[in-house]
Amino acid sequence: MEAGISIFSKAEGTRAPRVLLAISAVGALLALGMNSSYTQADAAPQASQLSTPAAPESPAAGGTSAVEASAESPRAEQLSSKIAELDAILLEKQKLEDALRTEKSELAAAQLQMANSKKLIRMEVDEFLGQSAERKRLDELLDEHKRNAEAVAAISGRVEALEKDLGSQHLKFSLAARDVERLKSQLAAEIRERNSKKIQSIARKLDKTIRFEQPVSFRCSASKSLAACLAEHRNDGQMSQWVLENYQRVLADDIREQVTELRMDPSWYRYRTRTEFAQASMSLDGTVQALMNVEATISAKQMMPCAILDVPFEQCDSKMYSLIVRSNKYDDRVRINDQDHGATPVSLMLDGGIYDIQITSGGTTQKRTLSLKGDQVVNFRF
């Protein structure tokens, strides 16, 4: 009986340290698990929040041609610089996204490895409690699990830093994209205003009456008189080309300040002609040689200035209004839609639309926004 008690007491004495060791191993496992609680489930929502915004349309859609058309404009230079900055930000953002994907892949692998080590530790604890395993194996598993947990924590830290950098880059990209759109809009308005001035200047010079001499040669019946041949002659097939050539020559000289090279089309205008023969002769075989005086009255179509300038026809369809800006100061400066127009009074012909007017005098600035729907006079008082 005593022996039985002695044996039982020895068994209890051997099992107690194993139970304590197993409990401490489980406690360590739980502690490591709590310290590395960053999981893929935690990472996924953060990744979704960093979705890339749509890049602004290339200024080429109405933007690149605008830049080319106004290469001398400071606004065009600003836009070109901002687009280059946007491209650099986008490139850096893509690098960060690639690095983040790589780190998250490593994190997933490390988390999987740590989960496997947890499973192995649990199995080892069960075997240890069943007195079939040695302490050495359990210690090795605990050390491995600790290394895995540290790796997960390190990668999680890098992922968090990358997501922070990516968020910052995302904001920079959004701000730069907004600046690009603003500059595109301002440049388009600047080009439109400049074209409007050219359209107005050209439109006043299009309607003309031109006179020119045109040599003609044609065959007529030798039995007819010269007067009869001249009376029967029609120039309908050639008159359009004659008018085009002479009208283009005269007009090119009139608008050379606005257009360096003029190429016209007869569909851009209407004309009426009057003709008379200044001199004529007829050979025995019926060949008539004559010099004809032509007077052509030409009326331009509404779209013609836009066709000449190669700008959208809608700019010739829009109605223009007078805008006069005045103030009670002489040393002021006027800016309309962020363009300088000098000192008051300022008188402009503008398309209908929204205009931001700003006047600065003696360090004081006043601003107004108006919708131009008719001729308007704006007065500022300081």
Question: Quick gist of this model?
Answer:
By secondary structure, the chain is of the alpha+beta class.
Question: What is the CATH class name of the largest domain?
Answer: Mainly Alpha
The total count of helices amounts to 9
Task: Give the H and E element order.
Answer: HHHHHEHHEEHHEEEEEEE
* Secondary-structure arrangement, i.e. CATH architecture of the largest domain: Orthogonal Bundle
Counted up, domains total: 3
Low-confidence stretches: 1-71
Question: Using DSSP, what is the number of strands?
Answer: 10
Structural class by sheet pairing and helices: alpha+beta
Instruction: Give the averaged pLDDT, no decimals.
Output: 77
- The CATH topology name of the largest domain reads Helix Hairpins
**Rg of Cα set:** 44 Å
Ends apart, CA distance between termini: 116 Å
Shape: elongated
Helix coverage percent: 55-70%
Q: Main β-sheet, in a few words?
A: 4 strands, antiparallel
Largest sheet, order of strands side by side?
A: 6-5-8-9
Beta-strand content bin? 15-25%
